[in-house]
């Protein structure tokens, strides 16, 4: 019997893939394989043909120049991404793509980079970079651990829920103790590091919903990876 297939798409890896964000793709592929799935990995860069079948989408961070390179293409793709999100496709959007999944990013020089409005958030360039190890508490995922490095300050609007509440670090904007944003099965965050190796609960949330949507079932038995929790404890204990 052939293994069930999951189609995993990495958005804009050529321009939006810094601070270890490629590791998120590796973690999702490995955890799917450990659960018996055959993973088909797709890459989408500006001008490419968007795959017909997509079960899980991951996008990373990038500098302002990278955001400018992908902006026009992302705006053309925005309607499709919003439809997929509304239909329950799980997505992980990190840093730069988190900003462009929102309404806009206004840089510190006053340039406005329009987003696709998948998330009701606004981002403005701040006077300093928010950098360092970060820990937050999430009702869905427990303690979430990562590393932030961003000058954009993001503000949640219209009842948009955060990924969690910051206990170490600055989070979305350094003012309201929120970090990240949530919409249906979309997880958005500033946390690099990469995020998913340190946070298996977030990875398995994405995997679970991809499998349920594609195949209608999912074996939720925890994976036996003994060093995961020790790695999380070590990461959480690092100084800011």
From TrEMBL:
Keyword annotations of the record: Cell shape, Cell wall biogenesis/degradation, Glutamine amidotransferase, Hydrolase, Ligase, Peptidoglycan synthesis
Pathway(s) where this gene product acts: Cell wall biogenesis; peptidoglycan biosynthesis
Entry annotation: catalytic residues: 95 (nucleophile), 192
Classification via InterPro entries: Class_I_gatase-like (IPR029062), CobQ_GATase1 (IPR033949), GATase_3 (IPR011698), Lipid_II_synth_GatD (IPR043702)
Reactions catalysed according to its record: L-glutamine + H2O = L-glutamate + NH4(+); beta-D-GlcNAc-(1->4)-Mur2Ac(oyl-L-Ala-gamma-D-Glu-L-Lys-D-Ala-D-Ala)-di-trans,octa-cis-undecaprenyl diphosphate + L-glutamine + ATP + H2O = beta-D-GlcNAc-(1->4)-Mur2Ac(oyl-L-Ala-D-isoglutaminyl-L-Lys-D-Ala-D-Ala)-di-trans,octa-cis-undecaprenyl diphosphate + L-glutamate + ADP + phosphate + H(+)
Domain of life: Bacteria
GO biological process, one term: peptidoglycan biosynthetic process
PROSITE patterns: GATASE_COBBQ
Keyword Ligase: yes
GO molecular function terms listed in the Swiss-Prot or TrEMBL record: carbon-nitrogen ligase activity on lipid II; glutaminase activity
Residues the record lists as binding substrate: 129
EC number: 6.3.5.13, 3.5.1.2
SUPFAM superfamilies linked to this entry: Class I glutamine amidotransferase-like (SSF52317)
Domain CobB/CobQ-like glutamine amidotransferase: 11-199
Subunit structure: Forms a heterodimer with MurT.
Family (UniProt): Belongs to the CobB/CobQ family. GatD subfamily.
HAMAP family linked: Lipid_II_synth_GatD (MF_02213)
Protein name stated in the entry: Lipid II isoglutaminyl synthase (glutamine-hydrolyzing) subunit GatD
